[in-house]
Write a structure and sequence with these properties.
Elements lengths: L7 H26 L11 E6 L4 E6 L14 E7 L5 E8 L13 E5 L10 E4 L6 E4 L2
Antiparallel strand pairs: 1-2, 2-5, 3-4, 3-6, 6-7
């Protein structure tokens, strides 16, 4: 009786093993390298909750805090929403943001929030920014 692993069946099995031997490591490398931009990159915007004064502080990195980011607009609307997308806080701000704390922090805005809703905040955004400026509330 002939061996079932002879001829075309053996060739297909060897080809499959070779493909898997190459594909699995490549897939692992691709997944590891697509981890959302890496930890070395600094976000363009970040938001800190300040429950002691019922506000959030919306910080923009200096490189993103430029007139061109809003196509020359001199004011923007900062909007903060909950997980469902409902607006909890909204305020117009001069653009670009200025440092209001003696040049010790990145440019930012202080956005007042209803004390009863401050823990519901999930994301803030600068509405007129292109490309978009938004960040989760931490």
């Amino acid at each position: 009786m002939p061996d079932p692993m002879e001829g075309p069946a053996r060739t297909r099995l060897v080809a499959l093993v070779v493909i898997l031997a190459l594909a699995v490591p490549l897939a692992i490398v691709a997944i590891a390298s697509s981890g959302g931009g890496g930890d070395d990159e600094e976000p363009e915007m970040y938001v800190e909750r300040a429950p002691e004064v019922f506000e959030v502080r919306v910080f923009v990195e200096p490189g993103a805090n430029v007139p061109d980011r809003t196509r020359g607009r001199r004011s923007v609307t900062v909007e903060c929403v909950d997980d469902a997308g409902a607006v909890i806080a909204r305020q117009d701000e001069a653009w670009p943001f200025t440092d209001t704390d003696g040049n010790t922090l990145d440019p930012h805005a202080h956005i007042p929030v209803n004390p009863a809703r401050i823990d519901d905040l999930s994301l803030c955004r600068v509405k007129q920014a292109r490309p978009a400026l938004e960040a989760p509330v931490t």
